[in-house]
Amino acid sequence: MKKVVLVNGIIAGLIVSVLMVASTMYFKSSGDHENGMIYGYASMILAFAFIFVGIKSFRDRYNNGVISFGKAFKIGLLIALIASTFYVVTWLIEYFYFFPDFAEKYAAIELAKAKAAGATEAELAKQTAEMASFAKWYKNPLFNALMTYAEILPVGLLVSLISALLLKRK
């Protein structure tokens, strides 16, 4: 089980990390952040396909075609944790060394959207204060890592759950 988890976790982690770096470089150079979330979650789904591959590989190669839901979910969860850790470490490196003004730029984009949508001065002031507080917290590597795990890990848990349900076999 260890080999299956490590191989598939590392492959998924490399996929999601390389795609994150590529998309970050694109969005930073183009200034177009509009579809960043779509690309980010699409790359996560693509990488987490290796959860399904890992569970199926373990079931068919090492477990005589049989696997319980619990064992399948555990394999998926471990693959998701490895891939998510790659993602988090990659983002921390990108953020602190190459994109340290991310929170400020993100705040400016969100405030411009709110202003264009007709937000009042009071609403804009409140949102500005919230964004400034978030930017301050985001400079803390632990908070940054936790927020980044909160971005990717639920997707991995969902893919693990679905894969375990589809692949369990008695």
TrEMBL record:
Transmembrane regions:
5-26, 38-55, 75-98, 146-167
Which InterPro entries does this one have? DUF4199
Q: Which UniProt keywords apply?
A: Membrane, Transmembrane, Transmembrane helix
Native species:
Sediminibacterium sp. KACHI17
Please identify the protein, giving its name as recorded.
DUF4199 domain-containing protein
